[in-house]
Amino acid sequence: MKRNRVISFLKTPIFKAKEYLHRRPQPGFRCDFAPPEQKEPARKALAELEREGIALLPAHFTGARLEKLRQAFEEAVRNHPDKANPDSLINEDILHLSPAFVEAALDDVLLETIGGYYGKPFAVGRANAMRILPSPETRYGSYQWHHDSRGRQVHVMILLQDMPENGQKMSYLRQSHLRYYDHWRGLAEGSRFEKEVHGNPELAPLITHITGPAGTVGIFDANGLHSGNRCQTVTRDTLTYCYVTYRHFKKIRCRKADVAALPPAKRGVLTFNPFCEQLD
Ligand SMILES: O=C(O)CCC(=O)C(=O)O
Ligand SMILES: [Fe+2]
User: Fold this and answer.
1) Which domains does the chain have, with CATH numbers?
2) How far is CA 25 from CA 7, 48, 91, 115, in A?
3) Distance between CA atoms of residues 197 and 194, nearest Å
4) Is residue 241 a contact partner of residue 156, using CB atoms and an 8 Å limit?
5) Element containing residue 15 per DSSP (H, E)
6) Which residues are close to ligand 2, an ion, with C-beta < 5 A?
7) Most informative mutation of 155, 158, 163, 194 for ligand 1 (most atoms within 8 A of CB)
8) Do β-strands 236-244 and 123-132 pair in parallel, antiparallel, or remain unpaired?
């Protein structure tokens, strides 16, 4: 047996124990980000997220809010080719670039939903703006079935343009967030779960996609199986925020004035990240 397989085998019970603790809500945690009229949409999204592992909010961002995000997005990705992915632009340090990016990350309904899911303090662990241009239909990296992290991890993907059914949409295997993926299962030959999903026709009805009009949001537990898709149809512009509770925090940079202007509960969703840097 290869050495890292042995280590993984030994570590799995430890990760399972950690996972159990991670999933326990924190007594006394108050999830109150949304005003009364937004509680119902958040409650619905939370029920969908808990049941399916993904919730869609069609055209959640509209009008001036969406337009501001689009403008800030253009600035953010200009001259930022993605070294890891062909035909792509990416900026992974966006929060300090525009208050619109912070405002979207801390949207009332999104936070109410995510707080309800975790039941404990959480923060933005990463944020990016990404443009994927039409590209050959190859399967690689995140454009294959995979899961991120061993523990629960909520991602929010905001579509800045309409996403048609034949577009470079992200796909999600509904209900796959309910099981624990140990290191072994990710080692499947030739894939990060490609064979498992494509080889089982019974799973087809469970596959859903982040499609819809511009401003649509997909909130998903990235510990469930999901896959990006490359194809030659249309460009996809997205903002992706990742919210975590105790690991996988990465450095995020925000403007001091933007942080100071926030109500305390929302401010915490940035500053609970131990690597949150505040710029003058
Ligand atoms: O860009 C995509 O469609 C894949 C996204 C993804 O894998 C993720 O957000 O975890
Ligand atoms: Fe992913």
Assistant:
1) 43-279 (2.60.120.620)
2) 29, 19, 33, 10
3) 6
4) yes
5) helix 3-23
6) 142, 148
7) 155
8) antiparallel
* The pLDDT value given to residue 173: 97
Eight-state DSSP code of residue 241: E
> What are the residues whose beta carbons fall under 8 Å from the beta carbon of 224, sequence distance 6 or more?
53, 54, 147, 172, 173, 174, 175, 176, 177, 178
- Kind and range of the H or E element at 221? strand 217-221
Q: Which ligand is nearest to the CA of 128?
A: 1
- Atom number of ligand 1 nearest to Cα 142: 7
CA–CA dist 195, 200 (Å, integer): 8
Inform me whether the pLDDT recorded for 217 exceeds 50: yes
Alpha helix positions (H), 91-216: 99-105, 108-118, 194-198
Q: What band does 103 get if pLDDT is binned at 50, 70 and 90? A: very high
Which of 79, 92, 197 shows the shortest CA–CA distance to 146? 197
Q: Pairing relation of β-strands 88-91 and 171-173?
A: unpaired
User: E strands along 65-201, which residues?
Assistant: 88-91, 123-132, 154-159, 171-173
CB atoms within 10 A of CB 180: 13
Amino acid identity for residue 192 in this structure:
R
> What does the pLDDT read at residue 111?
98
The token pair at 122 is: 């959480």
How many whole angstroms from 5 Cα to the centroid of ligand 2? Answer: 23
Question: Is pLDDT above 70 for 167?
Answer: yes
Least confident of 77-81, 113-117, 138-142, 148-152: 148-152
Ligand nearest to the CA of 127: 1
